């Protein structure tokens, strides 16, 4: 996807409001989610090579 002029280089999320309104809470701890993401990237390098080429 092309970068839009309003895109930011830093993304921050806070689930507090989702919890207050919906009772939602994350099921995966940050450390586990980062580990799973890294494992996925290592297992599927072709997906990221395509993204870098665009």
Question: Your description of this structure?
Answer:
This protein has 54 residues and is mainly α. The radius of gyration is 16 Å and the shape is flat. The N and C termini lie close together (8 Å). The chain contains 3 helices and no strands. Helix content is 56%, strand content 0%. The longest helix has 14 residues.
Brief digest:
The chain is mostly helical and about 55 residues long. The protein has helices at about 15-20, 30-45, 45-54.
Please mark out the parts with pLDDT under 50 across 5 or more consecutive residues, or reply none: none
Task: Tell me the series of helices and strands, N- to C-terminal.
Answer: HHH
Structural class category:
mainly alpha
Helix content: 55-70%
- State the major sheet: none
Could you tell me how far the N terminus lies from the C terminus, measured between alpha carbons in angstroms? 8 Å
Per DSSP, what share of the residues sits in E-state strands of 2 or more residues?
under 5%
Number of DSSP strands? 0
Tally of DSSP helical segments: 3
Radius of gyration: 16 Å
Mean of residue pLDDT? 89
């Amino acid at each position: 996807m092309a970068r839009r002029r309003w895109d930011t280089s830093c993304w921050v999320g806070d689930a507090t409001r989702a919890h207050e309104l919906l009772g939602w809470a994350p099921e995966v701890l940050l450390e586990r989610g980062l580990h799973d993401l890294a494992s996925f990237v290592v297992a599927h390098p072709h997906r990221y090579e395509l993204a870098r080429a665009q």
